[in-house]
Specification:
It contains 7 helices and 6 strands. By secondary structure, it is mostly helical. Strand 3 and strand 4 form a beta hairpin.
């Protein structure tokens, strides 16, 4: 009887051990699958990416139209001197970008560009922290094709190391929003800020596809 009980006990132990190993394996497998799924579709708890190249490219057309307006291009020039006016002329004072994008020596951006627009027609515009992109990350918009600009915007080596969450938040940056309140005598971007923000987020959350070259 003792021998029979021992056999039964050993059999039960082996069965329990086998089931335990199988259960552990399934737990690890499900966990890995869930983790992979999240990394592909969710970059933040409240930001989901659902790739759609057609919708993404269509949204970027609206984004590109805004980024090529004088309100954006003037502070994203190809050179180190900002542009000025709807004509995109070189700034009359010929200020230089400087290492931090805030000017050089005694000619600093905030000498003339205060925290708000100066009253009057085509007087110096203003917003807190007025500046160009820094010298080591110029983020040029001027002369860029839609394809080039789309690629540049999501390249963390060129966009200030911004991830998806930071890029989405940038739509509400003070200098960005200034583009729709530029002061007297300056044209607005082709669509409203809310429409731009919607297109911007749509582009990013549908895969940030670049238009064809």
């Amino acid at each position: 009887m003792k021998i029979l009980n021992n056999i039964r006990s050993k059999g039960t132990y082996k069965l329990a051990l086998t089931l335990g190993v199988i259960g552990l394996f399934l737990t690890v497998l499900v966990s890995a699958f869930t983790s992979d799924s999240r990394s592909e579709n969710t970059l933040e708890p409240d930001i989901r990416v659902k790739k759609d190249s057609i919708q993404s490219v269509e949204a970027f057309k609206k984004v590109y139209a805004v980024l090529q307006s004088p309100r954006c291009v003037n502070c994203h020039p190809s050179g180190d001197i900002p542009l000025q006016g709807d004509e995109r002329k070189l700034h009359a004072m010929f200020p230089k970008r400087g290492p931090e994008g805030k000017g050089m020596l005694t000619m600093k951006c905030n000498n003339c560009h205060q925290d708000e627009n100066t009253a009057g027609l085509k007087t110096p515009p203003g917003s807190p922290n007025w500046h160009l992109p820094p010298a080591d990350m110029k983020m040029v918009f001027e002369g860029k094709s839609a394809y080039e600009l789309a690629k540049q915007l999501v390249d963390r080596k060129q966009n200030g190391n911004k991830d998806l969450k930071a890029l989405i938040a940038h739509a509400d940056d003070g200098l960005v929003k200034w583009g729709w309140e530029p002061g007297e005598g300056r044209t607005l971007p082709p669509i409203s800020h809310s429409a731009f923000k919607e297109a911007w987020i749509t582009w990013l959350t549908t895969g940030a596809y670049a238009p064809t070259k």
